[in-house]
Amino acid sequence: MFKRVLLIVATSLITACTPGIDGLVHDKSLTLESLQQGGISIAGLGAKSGVLNQGHQDTYSELLRQALEDDLKGIAIVSENELLHAIRREDHALIVEEFSRRGTLSAININRLKNKLNTRYVALTQIDSNTVKNERSNQLESIDRNGKVLRPASTTSKSTRTVYARLYLFDLRSGKRVWGGSIHLSRNSSRSYGHDNTAVNLIRGISALSSGMDSAYPYPQAPSEGELLNSIFSAFAENLGKLK
Description:
CATH topology: Rossmann fold
Largest sheet: 7 strands, mixed
Number of helices: 8
Number of domains: 1
CATH class: Alpha Beta
Mean pLDDT: 85
CATH architecture: 3-Layer(aba) Sandwich
C-alpha cells in the first residue's frame, strides 16, 4: 500500500461576476419608480420534495429578503413571515403550490394576495434542483531528464453543488407576471492528496484501492445549499436593481 499526503483542503471556487438571468421576462409596466411606489412582498419559496432541507426554508426566505433590501434601497420589502400575518396559512400554501406547479398564479390566488396586502408586487421563488456531483482525477508524477521531481503524483477529489432557482414578480393590479427568470449556479470544494512514490506505484496503488477509494481519498463536503442560494438571491436582486 502506498502513502498519501493531504496537500490542499476544501477550496471553494467562487466567481466574482453576477450571474445573468435565463429566460428573462420584463413587462414594460415595471420600472424602478413603480417598484419604489408599490413595494414588494415575498409571497413564498417553494421546492420539489427532497430538493431542500425543509427545516431551513424560513432561513432561505430571510436570505431573499436581505438580498432584496441590500440592492433595492428605498423600496419597501415585506418578508414572508410578515405576509403570513396578513393571509391564512392555507391560502399561502395554495399560492406556493400553484406557483411551484405552474410557474404562474390564477386570478383566484392573485385576489387572495391583493385583498390582504398593501404592496403592489409579490415575489415567488421556486428551487428546481439542488444536486451534488463527486469526481476524482489523477495526476502522474512529473520529472526532468535528471530525475528531479517537478510535480509529485496526486489524486484530487472534488465535490460540486449545483442549484437551479426561479424567481418572478407578479403585479397585483394587472395580475401579470412582470419580471423574472431562472439562475443556476455551481460551486465546488476539492482536496488533493500527494503521493511519495513513483508514477508506476501510483497506478498500481489506485488499481489496488479501486474498491476503497472513498476511504483512501475522501470527498470534501460540498459548498452548502444556503451559500449558493444566498448568491443566487443576490444576483436576482442586483439584476432587478438595474431597472430604470
